[in-house]
Specification:
single chain; 208 residues; alpha/beta; Rossmann fold
């Protein structure tokens, strides 16, 4: 990566994992360890909020019926549309991804020399993201564990959870691009934190 010389401890880490894998928990642990987090899901929400940078393009692409009462994107309606129509998913990504990528890189530059963790759910599917980071960390767990965890969130049914899992990259594909995998199935938060800290220490003491 530009600006990361030989032996420099700074890393641009791509963090990914399926829904319910515990990726968000690992992101918080990496922040506790000293990383700056660039959360692409949070960016996606902000640019589709009322007045957001992508909202006008979304309305042009899908029509005003995708708007919620507050004037932002109705995410439930959009999710249902994407599940029902593969073409809608491609059109949505064509609007959102360039804006998300630009804002993510802007936030990374603002971090200066501090290590940056890019939380990217679709990292496996995007060759562009793989080229932007030095290391890829995948958080993995069984599908049964994914379903069990997500069902604890409000508003999710098992059918919807399984639909989301089916549309995400297969576990084997995520593991295939990983520089490290944490298998977060049955780990206590203390054990997970230990694994994250060990990996953080290793990567910040390796030559680039």
């Amino acid at each position: 990566m530009d600006g990361l010389g030989v032996g420099h401890p700074v890393r641009r880490i791509g963090l990914t994992g399926g829904i319910g894998s515990g990726k968000s928990t690992v992101a918080r642990l990496l922040v506790d360890a000293g990383a700056v987090l660039v959360d692409t899901d949070a960016i996606a929400r902000s640019i589709a909020a009322p007045g957001g940078a992508a909202l006008a393009s979304l309305v042009v692409t899908f029509g005003a019926e995708i708007l919620a009462a507050d004037g932002g994107l109705d995410r439930d309606r959009m999710r249902a549309l994407v599940f029902a129509d593969a073409g809608a998913k491609a059109r949505l990504e064509a609007v959102l991804h360039p804006v998300i990528g630009a804002e993510a890189l802007h936030q990374a530059l603002a971090a200066g020399v501090r290590p940056v963790v890019f939380d990217v759910p679709l990292l496996t599917e995007s060759r562009h993201w793989r080229q932007r980071v030095d290391r890829v960390l995948v958080i993995d767990c069984s599908q049964a564990t994914q379903v069990e965890r997500v069902l604890q969130r409000p508003g999710w049914s098992e059918d919807v959870v399984r639909s989301v899992i089916a549309q995400q990259a297969p576990r084997a594909a995520r593991r295939a691009i990983a520089d490290a995998v944490i298998f977060n199935d049955g780990l206590s938060i203390e054990a997970l934190a230990f694994e994250v800290q060990a990996l953080w220490t290793l990567w910040n003491n390796q030559p680039h």
